[in-house]
Amino acid sequence: MADIRGFRGFRYDLGQVGSLSDVVAPPYDVIDPALQKQLYDQSPYNAIRVELTKDEPGDDDLNNRYTRAAGTLRDWVASNALRQDTARAVYIYEQTFTAEGQEYTRRGFFARVRLEPFGQGKIYPHEQTMSGPKADRLKLYQATGFNVSPVFGLYPDRDGEVARVLEPFTLKAPPVVAKDHLGVTNKLWVVTDTHAISTLTGLMGPKPVYIADGHHRYETGVKYLEERKAAGEVADDEAAPNFTLMMLVGMTDPGLIILPTHRLFSGLTAVTSAELEALLGEHFDVVERTGTDAKAAWDHIQMDGSQAALGFGTVADGKWFVAKLRDPRVMTEAAPEQSDEWRGLGVSILHKLVVDRLVAPKLGTPAVKYVHLLKEVTDAVAAKECQLAVLVPPATMEHVEQIAGNGEKMPAKSTYFYPKLLTGMVYNSLKKD
């Protein structure tokens, strides 16, 4: 059973730090140096100063960005810029945003969730992880003793029973509000009602939880717990390191959307549209040629609605076409160890068949950059930042549930749950309750 708990979160004292908008930040994995500087300049209390602290000349094992993050957090707590709530709570978190011209509102709640190794309980990953980010986050956990940013979890709630428990609390009091650098409006309500928390805990107990985002942070939490146990610092099953900070959203929430993750491939031999069509011809049919119009190619993919149609843009001649896998059975040979659901994903078809079997032997093994918006793709093609751009249909919630439920992990960067959860709405201590 998934073990969901209320907790005494640490939150900014807005009387000291000013506007919440000035002190929140996106998670580390979407922050480039320019945004890092912007957030640093925004406020001396901005969460960037712990989430992704700047490197400094002369950094060593004793003085580095992780130790600076720890020192910053200690100073904020000592000065009461960050205060721990007096009562255990769950925290309703709502984000209102625009994607591709349409407005959405996504609502969930922050809670502590008991850590369990994947495959040993009711918490399921859906994407593969990499060692680098886990090593980075572990150093931050070790230095600070905090969950600075949350894991994003999903749970089935087809009847809306969990949402109905939380709804009344959004009407009883005004939220604290932050608008982030992307224009997303973020709202937070604190729920300390013990009956509501108990009801929520009971409803969530039998439900599986699927990790939407933050796989590295979750696995780091498991590793940190193992380390603390080995050091004799985990008194019992209720000790703080047994849990991680998680934002939980129902899988039928109307604001839960998955954006596509398109691919920009570089390091390849220059290739024209005609040459690429010939390479793909063994397994794909060209179903649409759109000239220089990437949007027309994307519109065709969306209208097709399947995972088998991919859009290809060749930078050498600036042309686009849509190709569709002719016979899905070829994926059984390409990925025999995987399920039919996994083999049917657009990203699986792209990487296992197109890149590994058709492109790499002829054009070289590519480096890949991931983007989400069509404009990012067209800008990269116009600037000749890659040799090949590929438009990929997004995975669906059904794919996440099926594939994760099978105990499988999707290829890296299969999903992009937009918008990201902000760092700084609430922090979770791994040392005290």
What does this structure look like?
This protein is an alpha+beta fold. It folds into two domains: 4-257 and 418-429, no CATH class; 261-393, Conserved hypothetical protein from pyrococcus furiosus pfu- 392566-001, domain 2 (2-Layer Sandwich). The protein has 16 helices and 21 strands. Strands 1, 4, 5, 6, 8, 9, 10, 11 and 12 form a nine-stranded mixed sheet that branches. A hairpin with a 4-residue loop joins strand 16 (309-314) and strand 17. Helix 4 (65-78) packs parallel to helix 5 (131-144) and helix 5 (131-144) packs across helix 9.
Keywords:
Conserved hypothetical protein from pyrococcus furiosus pfu- 392566-001, domain 2; nine-stranded mixed sheet; globular; 433 residues; alpha+beta; 2 domains; six-stranded antiparallel sheet
What is the count of structural domains? 2
Overall, the morphology is globular
> Which runs of at least 5 residues are low in confidence (pLDDT < 50)?
none
Main β-sheet, in a few words?
9 strands, mixed
Structural class: alpha+beta
Query: How much helicity do the residues have?
Result: 25-40%
Q: How widely separated are the two ends?
A: 22 Å
Number of helices: 16
What's the total number of strands? 21
Mean pLDDT: 95
Measured by DSSP, the beta-strand proportion falls in 15-25%
- Radius of gyration, taken over Cα atoms and rounded to an integer in Å: 23 Å
Write the layout of secondary structure elements.
Elements: E1 4-5, E2 10-12, H1 14-17, H2 33-42, H3 48-51, H4 65-78, E3 82-84, E4 90-99, E5 102-114, E6 123-124, H5 131-144, E7 146-147, E8 151-155, H6 161-166, H7 169-172, E9 176-179, E10 185-191, H8 194-204, E11 209-213, H9 215-230, E12 243-250, E13 257-259, E14 262-266, H10 273-280, E15 284-291, H11 294-304, E16 309-314, E17 319-325, H12 330-334, H13 340-343, H14 346-363, E18 367-371, H15 374-382, E19 388-391, H16 397-405, E20 416-418, E21 428-429
Parallel strand pairs: 6-11, 8-12
Antiparallel strand pairs: 1-5, 2-3, 4-5, 4-10, 5-12, 7-21, 8-11, 9-10, 13-20, 14-18, 14-19, 15-17, 16-17, 16-19
